[in-house]
């Protein structure tokens, strides 16, 4: 394990995000890093991979920069790079929560909870745990009993919460996400909306919780979805309960693939066998797409593809 993957964010004021992004990209390239970084007037959010030496140099550079005093890095060991390219992009917001009114986490945010505090509080009767990630992230792993807003994309979550306010009435609401950044604003939004009695957030996110020597990732079921080539990583160091279900037949599954239709790209859980049976399409329409990536990648003959499609049509088993 000579490589590391860093995950971090920091709210600060960046005067000229476009300028900063161009300079930061050069600095990252000089350090042979790969990954994805978002820069906005409100701060930085990134995940990069590199050798131990290079990632150490990067962390030193950031910690020595007056803009990033107090920045926290979550560190995973790795066998190699977890990204193909190095990208640094200026954006209007660090995370797109699509809130009607922006929340400044320096002004309003949920109570910060350490992993151990979170673990203790989540087991109390008067507490509900709210997952503030996308549903495809929830589906492969989540805290036991956490609320999964029934929405297509995260953008619809605020409306769903308003419509289901009674779930939170009189309760302490605990939010969590991958590295903590989504909770900074979202827990602030919950407070500003008057949702629940009290709002807490898992400081440092699931990534920190999994490494805590006391919490050890307990009460987490399944794996955690990550936005790099690993796709999922283990969290619970004590027990492993599979919660993911195969998109096609509902059997236990933790293998994520993207729908082979390049215009769909839906994240689905599927065994290798079921993926093959459906030529990588999440539904028949996607299987039949003229630019189906699965067919291209596996160099399948037209005759074979036709035979599979007629079989699928006949069985009407396709979801
Ligand atoms: Zn699809």
TrEMBL record:
Cited PROSITE patterns: RHODANESE_3
Catalytic activity: uridine(34) in tRNA + AH2 + O2 = 5-hydroxyuridine(34) in tRNA + A + H2O
Top EC group: oxidoreductase
Keywords: Oxidoreductase, Transferase, tRNA processing
GO BP field: tRNA modification
Function: Catalyzes oxygen-dependent 5-hydroxyuridine (ho5U) modification at position 34 in tRNAs.
HAMAP family per the UniProt record, alphabetical: TrhO
Protein name: tRNA uridine(34) hydroxylase
Organism the protein comes from: Ureibacillus sinduriensis BLB-1 = JCM 15800
